[in-house]
Predict the structure.
Amino acid sequence: MTVLLCPAPFSPEREMALLAQGKTGDCGALASFVGYCRATSASGAVEALVLDHYPGFTEKEIERIAAHVIERHQLIDLHVLHRVGAVAAGEAIVLVAALSAHRAPSFAAVAEMMDYLKTDAPFWKRELGPSGARWIEPTADDYARRQEHAR
Amino acid sequence: MTVLLCPAPFSPEREMALLAQGKTGDCGALASFVGYCRATSASGAVEALVLDHYPGFTEKEIERIAAHVIERHQLIDLHVLHRVGAVAAGEAIVLVAALSAHRAPSFAAVAEMMDYLKTDAPFWKRELGPSGARWIEPTADDYARRQEHAR
Amino acid sequence: MTKILFFGRLRDAAGLAELSCCLPQSLRTVAEVRQWLGARDPNLGQALAAPGVRVAVDQTFCASEQACAAGAQEIAFMSPLSGG
Amino acid sequence: MTKILFFGRLRDAAGLAELSCCLPQSLRTVAEVRQWLGARDPNLGQALAAPGVRVAVDQTFCASEQACAAGAQEIAFMSPLSGG
C-alpha cells in the first residue's frame, strides 16, 4: 500500500509506470483513476482548487480506508496519491490504482476508494475563480454512492 | 476514439501519457484498465497467451463497440489498445482508457468496454504452458456481466 | 470463389484456418453451407453446430443461420469470442 | 493547554484556523466545548452545530458529541470532508 500527499504536481503516468514495474506474476489487472482539476465548473471558470488538509490525521485516515478496501477486495496492492495545497486547472488532483488477479475486484476497489475520498477523507476544497473562492462540499450523489459500500 | 491492434508489446504508461497530453479543460476524469498476461492460471504455469484475430473485421467490431460506449456514457474520448499474436507472461494484453467530465461515466465506460471485449470482440485466445496449448473461452461470469449492458 | 475461415477451436476442428472453394449454386443459407461442410467432415460439422458458434458473411455478423450465403466472398465460422 | 482547530467553512466562521486555550475544568464533553466556543462567538456556535460537522479529539473521530474532551491536547472541528 502506498498513500502519499503531494504538495506539488505529480505525474500519474510516472506513478503508473513504477507500479507496473513492481507488479508480480499473479497480477492480471490494474485499474486506475486520475481526477483532474477542470477549467470550468457549474459556477463558471476555475483557475485553481485549493485543498486544505489536517496534517497527520489526513494521512492516517486515508491509510485506514485504503487498508479496508484492500481487505474487502483482496487486492494485491493499492496506491493513492493526493494533492494538497493549490492545484491549477488541468493538473491531476488524485490517482488511485488497484492491482489484483482478476478485473472485477480492481474496478470495484478504485470506484470505492474514490467514493470514500469524496466524503470521508479529511480534505477541504475551495474553487478559485474570477468571482473569488467557493467551498466545494460533497453532493447528495456523493453521499449516496458512499452509502452503497458497507463498512 | 483510438482503436489499435498491437502485434508487439506496448507501454500502457506511455499511452496514458499521450492521452493526458491531449486532454481538454473540461476533462475531470480518466479511468483506465490494463489487463496483463498472468504467469499462472487455473491450469498451472502460463508461458504466454496467443491471440488470434480476424484482420479487418476485429478492428471494425471493436470500433463499433467503442462508438456505442462513447455515446452511451457521453465520453470525451475512449482509447482501446489490444495485443494480437503471442503475449508473454507479464506483458500487457489490453488497455482501455476513458475520459469524461465527471468520474461515474468514465468508470462505467471502462468496465463496460472490458465486458464487451471479453465476449464480443473477435479474438481467440490460447494459453501456452508446459502441458501444451489450451483455448480460453468466456466464463459464465463474463457472459453474465455482458448481459448487464443493454445494447 | 468463396473463402471460408475458421477461428478458435473451429480451426483445430477443421485442421486448417482457411480454405477457398466454389460453393455449389444450390446453397442459399449459412445453415446449408454448414451442412455441406459437415457432409465432407462430420467432426467439423458437429463442431460448427455447437452452441456459441457465430458466423460472419463478408465481415458482417449473421443474426441467424437463415442468413443468405449465396455469392459470399468470405464466410467466417467463429468459436466463442474472447478478448481482453 | 488545548489546541482547537477549524477546517473548511468552519475556518471562515471562526475567522481563524487554530487557537490555543486552557479549557475550563468543568467542560467534560465535546458538546460542552462547542457550547463554550459558541458562548464567546454565537455565529461560530451556530456554524459548529450545523449538520455534517465532524469532530476529532486527539486525531480520533468522535462517534458522538458526548465523547470526552477533558484533557484533550487537540480538538478539531471539521465541516463536511471532500477529497478526490
